[in-house]
Amino acid sequence: MAVFKPENVEDLYDIGDVLGSGHFGQVRQVRERATGTTWAAKFLKIRKNAYSRLGLDRDSVEREVEILQAVQHSNIVTLKDVFESRSEVVLILELISGGELFDFIAEKESLLESEAIEFMKQILEGLGFMHSRNIAHFDLKPENIMLLDKALPHPNIKLIDFGLAHRFVPGEEYRSTSGTPQYIAPEVINNQPLNTAADMWSIGVITYILLSGLSPFQGDTDEETLKNVDAMMYRFDAQHFSMTSSMAKDFIQKLLVKNPCERMTAEESLLHPWIKPITSKQVANRNRSSINIKNFKKFNARRKWKMSYNMVWMCNRLVQLKPFKVKSEPDPLERQCESDVEDTESKPASLIRRRLSSSS
């Protein structure tokens, strides 16, 4: 059960500058008076009743809080405190100032596979911890993989944004058609029962992009992308994977498997020879291979432009529709336009979530 404190947040924290803002509230930098530690405080407006159009549903906030309180791990954003008043909930979160991992990599002139693997290990360790507690993220993508502080020699990875995360209970059958098209698993598209294996598919897609600068299933439209995912339409193009090791390709192939039961788990992935080489030859192969940094830079630039474009379009569309729209359920566009910032460098546009309607 989520733990909410009844105290006033201002009694324990000094409220500082605004880091980000959105339809449902804002994120501010705060300083804990007792320790002097700096945190990020997410101030969320809560709907007063089921018919209100202002604010978030308290149950959805409580679910996210419960999950964050259950996944205290060095590679997952830390939730320290939660305060509640009549009109808002305040989440005290770790201040993540290093920006997105993909942006950090795009600033480099080169990157060996062995260096990229150090980041993948951290992602898998955080994910494995979640999965061991029967929790799936369901929204793994570059925008939700951050660096605590990019100035450190070995930056610490942080997984963020648990708005779509789900905690499984024994005997439950869970389905969802939410996610971002190029990262979601086939079982999501087909509205089949889900488990933590859906996250591992996303890891396969992210690894493919990291190494080549290409998105394996990306089509000209979302519909085409979804068809490519369902049809398993991907390949290792020689031009873009010329510097990629065979072990890296094998790692991806063991994740981009249509049957969820046959995919590697997070635990198995950490033991794969690409991540944990067994022989000196395997180590040498990793050190001779590198990511396609030139193409990766192009991919990341397109990704950032597309997110900015989509955010402007979505929010403008929301403003146009609002005077004419009556609803009892939260509007997905409102969630997409909402800032979910836990850092000082990422912008609200980097936290878009697309909701897919079921095809069944």
UniProtKB/TrEMBL annotation:
<feature type="region of interest" description="Disordered">
    <location>
        <begin position="330"/>
        <end position="360"/>
    </location>
</feature>
<dbReference type="GO" id="GO:0005737">
    <property type="term" value="C:cytoplasm"/>
</dbReference>
<keyword id="KW-0418">Kinase</keyword>
<dbReference type="GO" id="GO:0005524">
    <property type="term" value="F:ATP binding"/>
</dbReference>
<dbReference type="GO" id="GO:0035556">
    <property type="term" value="P:intracellular signal transduction"/>
</dbReference>
<dbReference type="Pfam" id="PF00069">
    <property type="entry name" value="Pkinase"/>
</dbReference>
<comment type="similarity">
    <text>Belongs to the protein kinase superfamily.</text>
</comment>
<protein>
    <recommendedName>
        <fullName>non-specific serine/threonine protein kinase</fullName>
        <ecNumber>2.7.11.1</ecNumber>
    </recommendedName>
</protein>
<keyword id="KW-0067">ATP-binding</keyword>
<feature type="binding site">
    <location>
        <position position="42"/>
    </location>
    <ligand>
        <name>ATP</name>
    </ligand>
</feature>
<dbReference type="InterPro" id="IPR011009">
    <property type="entry name" value="Kinase-like_dom_sf"/>
</dbReference>
<dbReference type="InterPro" id="IPR008271">
    <property type="entry name" value="Ser/Thr_kinase_AS"/>
</dbReference>
<dbReference type="GO" id="GO:0004674">
    <property type="term" value="F:protein serine/threonine kinase activity"/>
</dbReference>
<keyword id="KW-0808">Transferase</keyword>
<dbReference type="GO" id="GO:0005634">
    <property type="term" value="C:nucleus"/>
</dbReference>
<keyword id="KW-0547">Nucleotide-binding</keyword>
<dbReference type="GO" id="GO:0043065">
    <property type="term" value="P:positive regulation of apoptotic process"/>
</dbReference>
<dbReference type="InterPro" id="IPR017441">
    <property type="entry name" value="Protein_kinase_ATP_BS"/>
</dbReference>
<feature type="domain" description="Protein kinase">
    <location>
        <begin position="13"/>
        <end position="275"/>
    </location>
</feature>
<dbReference type="InterPro" id="IPR000719">
    <property type="entry name" value="Prot_kinase_dom"/>
</dbReference>
<keyword id="KW-0723">Serine/threonine-protein kinase</keyword>
